[in-house]
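Illustration 12: Uracil-DNA glycosylase.
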Amino acid sequence: MNVNIHPGWKRCLQEEFKKPYFEKLIDFVKSEYKSHQCFPKENTIFNAFDRCSFADTKVVIIGQDPYHGINQANGLCFSVNDGIPHPPSLINIFKGIEKDLKIPYPKNGNLEPWADQGILLLNATLTVRAHQAGSHQKKGWEQFTDAVIQLISREKQNVVFLLWGGFAKKKVKLINTEKHYVLTSGHPSPLSANRGYWFGNNHFSKTNVILKQLEEKEINWSIT
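Figure caption equivalent — predicted structure in token form:
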């Protein structure tokens, strides 16, 4: 299996990679990719860890599952490949940014520019079978990504966690809230957003206020 991951993460997670559950998980993923169409592409499964190093991580956004449509997922939560129409949740994320920061709605939905600035765009499950949402859940990915969240909480300080929706909010139990910042709101999905649980949370400007107070470089939320 071709794994692209930043050397800093490799060092931090080397013991996790040796655990029996992870070895069993990788065997499952290899089998799935061999016998079915799965997403994202095999060489971008760990894209979140390759684009954003452990040392550079200052913001974490948690998603649940990769997109399961053709050519959508690129290994970053909520992100789609260049030129792909924006899914509903991503549309509402960009509308939220537009409302919060007056940044124009972008043409491109690839969030790699965010990852390159220190945002870990982490799905709880890193792979999925085509057109079968949740098909790779409860196979070991959640144990791995929970370990990643705990590692960040334990080894770093002053990271901003953005937890959107009920699933992500449950991850707060893995985070030391005395040394990190946690912002919660409804999910950007239409069901939640249209009920008023997403728009107006201003998480993007709030994140930059925190980073400025910490004398960290603020995030440029525009996608160019």
